[in-house]
Design a protein that fits this description.
The protein is of the alpha/beta class and 374 residues long. It is built from 13 helices and 17 strands. The chain has a seven-stranded mixed beta sheet, sandwiched between helices. A four-stranded mixed beta sheet has the order 1-2-3-15. A four-stranded antiparallel beta sheet has the order 13-14-17-16, covered by helices on one side. The radius of gyration is 20 Å and the shape is globular. It binds pyridoxal-5'-phosphate.
């Protein structure tokens, strides 16, 4: 730990950072500036799905660094085209817009929904989290995050899974949902709610957009979380795990949905960056049946091992452990014991380890977390 870190940091105070500087990573392990090792059960907020410096995206990114870094979206590049093909195959037919982050993928989705329907209202869920830029913030169902920045983009309506039907109508451009609310506390959406959202969107001529920024790219045990829900959305947003740590976001629009956008409607200078796309191609290839089965196995192991400590909920390796007390002090004591964990709400520990976490590492994580909470 670097105790002077807060005195020399020249950063705006948007984060309550732990006073620790990480310098190296390997698989599910991090190393700090003093050489201390940490088991990482957080993966940079559900990002480093294959583990730190996984050889497949690392080799792909390094090879691309040796060829071409950037040309802009006024031209084609091979990694961008290949990634769009791979994502289309996973989705079952989709066209992609590439950007650099989750919030940008939601911005793209909101603009696309307006253009595709000519309507302006978006219905999302209370407790949801869709990002920090104005559009994404406007549809985020957490008043504490929205209110300091009002006035926001008009047209946002909020519902619960039970009151969705009452909020969707002829002005609804889109219903926007996270299959599992991540930042909002790791709450899986009941399958019946997703089925109802699909039916409501169809009934009212609205679009169903799933925000899979946190749940996508294998985290819940399928490539997209919606695969287990038996419905197909009109569009999906991705980011976090897609680049295994290199910045990339994506909006996938189903081939059956309206294209919406025309040239000039939307853009991003860096979107589809060749290095990020090369890494992401390797990530998508690595999310195979074996790894997805492993995600479910390790999820079961963690759920069983942690059950004596509190209520466990979640899907795959997006897990919450609900305690009867604030978890903030526990994050610091976990670091002291060489364990990185996250939170999602005052009393909720959030675990989003690399999907490649071994059974031995999971067992060690259970042991360390049990000591921290005891
Ligand atoms: N959507 C969801 C579901 C998220 O979990 C997040 C981030 O946590 C975002 C959007 C915003 O992503 P980013 O921080 O990359 O802008």
């Amino acid at each position: 730990m670097t105790s002077e870190a807060t005195t020399w940091a020249k950063l705006l105070p948007t984060y309550a950072r732990q006073d620790i500087t990480f310098t190296d990573g390997d698989g599910a392990w991090l190393v700090d500036a003093d050489g201390k090792r940490y088991l990482d059960l957080f993966a940079g907020i559900a990002v480093v799905g294959l583990g730190h410096r996984h050889p497949a995206p690392r080799t792909a990114a390094q090879a691309q660094l040796d060829r071409l870094w950037h040309v802009s979206n006024l031209y084609w590049t091979e990694p961008m085209s290949e990634l769009a093909e791979k994502l289309s195959d996973r989705f079952g037919g989709a066209h992609t817009f590439f950007c650099n982050s989750g919030t940008e993928s939601v911005e793209a989705a909101l603009k696309w929904a307006r253009k595709a329907t000519g309507r302006t209202e978006v219905v999302s869920l209370e407790g949801s989290f869709h990002g920090r830029t104005f559009g994404a913030l406007s549809v985020t169902g957490q008043p504490s995050k929205r209110e300091p920045f009002a006035p926001l983009v008009p047209g946002a309506r909020f519902a619960t899974a039970e009151t969705l039907a009452g909020q969707v109508g002829p002005d609804t451009a889109a219903i926007l949902l996270e299959p599992v609310q991540g930042e909002g506390g790791v709450h899986p959406l009941p399958p019946v709610a997703l089925a109802e959202a699909r039916a409501l969107a169809d009934e009212h001529g609205a679009l169903l957009i799933l925000d899979e920024v946190q749940t996508g790219v294998g985290r819940t045990g399928t490539f997209f979380a919606w695969e287990t829900y038996g419905i197909r959305p009109d569009a999906v947003t991705l980011a976090k795990g897609l680049g295994n740590g290199l910045p990339i976001g994506a909006l996938l629009v189903s081939d059956e949905a309206p294209t919406g956008f025309e040239p000039g409607d939307h853009g991003s200078t860096f979107g589809g960056n060749p290095v990020s796309c090369a890494a992401a191609c390797a990530v998508v290839d690595a999310i195979d049946g074996d790894l997805l089965a492993h995600v479910l196995d390790v999820s079961a192991q963690l759920s069983e091992g942690l059950a004596p400590l509190g209520e466990i909920r979640g899907l795959g390796l997006l897990l919450a452990l609900e305690l009867d007390r604030p978890v903030a002090p526990l994050l610091a004591s976990a670091l002291e014991r060489g364990l990185v964990i996250g939170s999602a709400g005052e009393n909720t520990i959030r675990l989003t380890p690399p999907l490649t976490l071994t059974h031995d590492e999971a067992a060690l994580g259970i042991e360390l977390l049990t000591e921290v909470i005891a």
